[in-house]
Amino acid sequence: MPVEYFFPTPIYFSMVKNLDLIQQEMSNYVSNLDRGANLANPWGDTVQTTFKYGNYEHVLSSTPALLEEIKNHCNEFLVRLKHFNLNARIKQSWCNFGDQNSFQHYHIHGDSDISGVYYYQTSGDDGDIVFRNPSLVNRFHKLTYNIDNSVNYKPEVGKIILFPSFLEHAVYSNNTSHQRISVSFNISLDYNERKL
Ligand SMILES: [Fe+2]
Question: How far is ligand 1, taken at its centre, from the CA of residue 38, in Å?
């Protein structure tokens, strides 16, 4: 008798269509960025980022082709998930610099609905992103803990990944001397509802 596996968690990935223009935009953004004034590691790990709690400048305001591409992939993701009347709004976008030995602890993006990453600069070996099964019972129960309860994606220039913001993820240590640069973003979803 076969064993069947149910209750999937959606993770979307694609290569961007407008790669050359997006890479040019990112090149301009990164070369104009004052790293000394704008980079920190507010999460207690070792990735340097432009992210700040509260108000700060969107990376995507400097990269309109990447913004457009993210919106298109987000819409595609929503259609695949059978959502046709949700408004998606990009709330935050920030740039990450992963140097040698940098990593990110497991975390979630608790204040949004869809999160994602775009890889601008990577060798492919400078730090996979790894997602963990959101079902605690599957991870720890004696019957199921041997099932693959995590999945990792190799970074690739031009790759975009979208995932539920509740999904725990981490970034493996960069064991190379190559600097990985990515853009992350958070998206909120709203139904068309009458508000009080
Ligand atoms: Fe994250």
Answer: 18
Closest by alpha carbon to 117, among 80, 79, 153, 166?
153
CA–CA distance, 157 with 135 (Å, rounded to integer): 31
Task: Quote the ligand 1 centre to 147 CA distance (angstroms).
Answer: 24
Q: How far is the CA of 172 from the centre of ligand 1 (A)?
A: 12
Model confidence pLDDT, tens digit, residues 79-90: 999 999 899 999
H or E stretch covering 23:
helix 19-32
- What are the structural domains of the chain? 12-190 (2.60.120.620)
Alpha-carbon distance of 3 to 143, in angstroms, equals 13
The answer to whether the predicted template modeling score (pTM) of the entire model surpasses 0.90 is: yes
* Residues β-bridged to residue 114: 164, 187
Query: Dihedral of the CA atoms 137, 149, 167, 19 (nearest 10)?
Result: -170
Q: 109 CA distance to ligand 1 centroid (A)?
A: 6
How many angstroms separate the CA atoms of 55 and 14, rounded? 30
User: What is the separation, in whole angstroms, between the first and last Cα of the chain?
Assistant: 54
